[in-house]
Amino acid sequence: MSRKKAAKGNKASAASSPASTGSPSTTAAAAAAATPGATRGTGGKGARSSPGIVQMNGVVHPSRPSISNSSEFYDIAFKVMVVGDSGVGKTCLLVRFKDGAFLAGSFISTVGIDFRNKVLNIDGVKVKLQIWDTAGQERFRSVTHAYFRDAHALLLLYDVTNKRSFDNIQAWLTEIHEYAHQDVVLMLLGNKADATHDRVVKREDGERLAKEFGVPFMETSARSGLNVELAFTAVAKELTHRSVKDPSEKFKLQEYVNKEMKSTGCCRS
Ligand SMILES: Nc1nc2c(ncn2[C@@H]2O[C@H](COP(=O)(O)OP(=O)(O)OP(=O)(O)O)[C@@H](O)[C@H]2O)c(=O)[nH]1
What we know:
10 strands; 10 helices; globular
């Protein structure tokens, strides 16, 4: 079985059998119960067992470093959802970030929802991102909506080679405003920026749309790795900043992203 197939298979089991167990995508419900970042306001194992837990903005701060599912210590946990139309590259983006690989080969659509954890070091703070990969197909939309309200950040993707996926961004934003937390960190990503010959959505169009809705934006490529790490690091920085730093020192996500893109000189297509 290919890696892609294995990943998608996990999603299928998570969606169809909420009480079943499995790894790494045990189940949505089990994950929410087992991992601090997945349960806003109530925390997870660390929060329930330790009186030293501090909670800010619904985020769990264990009094001591905790251990994530992947056995890595962390100080703070957040839930990030990757959303957008079917085929825009959500699973590939997540796999690129988590494993540094590209899932080439035939496209197998996600069924339901799946998650993976990754711990990042953000300015000396160990930040666990629990990243939820959602199904883009319309028939799974109610499942996706159900998870919106627990997300601390949303990465909203379209595919630069698919105009329809770009046109649907407005509808996605409407759904996000309806179902997600009002202070959710949101970022618009134009994926498949490597596909220059098939491109139908210009970078400027993405920038314009993002500006219109006041959302940070950049283009990514799960295939080449362009900006993938930066996208997740940027939202992790924003969330960490909001949670542990002085709230009067506002972190400017778009400025950070622009600066990082310029400094690496790698990322404008
Ligand atoms: N050229 C190129 N192809 C990509 C990129 N990302 C994903 N793809 C391809 O796009 C197709 C869909 O990718 P997925 O990651 O499965 O898409 P998805 O958004 O998870 O789709 P659903 O699970 O149906 O919601 C696959 O054939 C990938 O190989 C990219 O950055 N560049």
